[in-house]
Automatic annotation (TrEMBL):
Signal peptide: none
Organism: Hydrococcus rivularis NIES-593
Pfam families associated with the record: DUF455
Protein name: DUF455 domain-containing protein
Length: 299
């Protein structure tokens, strides 16, 4: 069976590369922790919505999802308590929301009908599985970065909190793998559906992940490239509607423009010289990346 693992950001920066930088900057570190909190909290809502759509069938899955919600809620509570203790913000994190972008790229409406219940279950399990894998990758990298960082009281508290969460998140990945394997073993047709779902939701997750990280020039075009990659995992007749529904927001991305302006303001207010010497070149470097990607695609 296909094994879908999260890819690096722009195929260059690993989770360890990113988290090493994160723990060196307290402001970014607190925002990252708050993003964890927000995602854990939001997943409770999304899993509850899934249970309601399942309407009690199959019972075993509903029972498992109920336990899953309890664990995600516990993680959100631990992270909330940690952030409050550290005097950090617990409002909606700034920047493009990974989970919002992931949901925007989903095609949940395609599985709402009763006769597509099983397809919907496969889709839900594949999407949960790939996001949990990303979470595990980042929690593992975060723990590693904190072990390498100065052993301050704050860093130790953060590491101990993440170390409590990580094993349960790894358990969620194993749980998803078991369910998907169980379904795939029913028949060759089921196996094909599971394989397709894994590829599709891996592409969606990667697009959502990069959208949450990339505000540089040319990000809109890179998002469109990712959207096309997602569409290519679908059947020919599904692609036009999927693209038409998501292409305008992907291209114009009003939220992205607001975040760019806010980031530029903060960089300028912090240090005008660094804004000119570092922020502007970094922002414009995005155009080079887009050009390189286009050249690679042509080759």
């Amino acid at each position: 069976m296909t094994v879908a693992y999260p890819r690096k950001f722009n195929n260059s920066m690993s989770a360890r590369d990113i988290l090493k930088r994160v723990v060196e900057n307290r402001e970014i570190h607190m925002i990252t922790l708050n993003r964890y909190r927000y995602n854990e909290q939001r997943s409770c809502k999304d899993l509850t919505d899934l249970i309601e759509r399942l309407n009690g069938k199959p019972k075993e899955l509903v029972q498992d999802l109920s336990r899953h919600i309890a664990e995600e809620a516990r993680h959100a509570m631990w992270l909330t308590d940690l952030l409050v203790e550290l005097g950090a913000d617990i409002g909606k994190p700034p920047g493009v929301s990974y989970i919002d972008e992931f949901e925007r790229l989903l095609d949940q409406d395609a599985y709402n009908s009763e006769n597509k219940l099983e397809d919907g279950i496969i889709a839900a399990l594949a999407s949960i599985n790939v996001t949990e894998k990303r979470g595990c990758e980042y929690f593992s990298a975060h723990i590693h970065a904190l072990k390498e960082a100065p052993q301050t009281e704050e860093n130790i508290k953060i590491r101990e909190t993440i170390e409590k969460i990580f094993p349960e998140e790894a358990g969620h990945v194993r749980w998803g793998n078991r369910w998907l394997t169980k379904i795939a073993q029913k028949s060759p047709e089921h196996r094909t559906k599971v394989e397709q779902a894994k590829r599709k939701y891996a592409a969606i997750e990667q697009a959502a992940f990069e959208a949450g990280m990339d505000i540089m020039a040319g990000a809109e075009l890179r998002r469109i490239n990712k959207l096309m990659e997602i569409a290519n995992t679908m059947s020919v007749w599904e692609r036009p509607q999927y693209l038409m529904e998501r292409l305008p927001q992907t291209l114009f991305a009003p939220e992205l423009q607001e975040i760019r302006i806010e980031a530029a303001k903060r960089a300028w207010n912090r240090n005008p010289q660094e804004f000119v010497e570092k922020f502007v070149p970094m922002f414009l470097n995005g155009l080079t990346k887009t050009q390189n990607q286009q050249k690679t695609a042509k080759v």
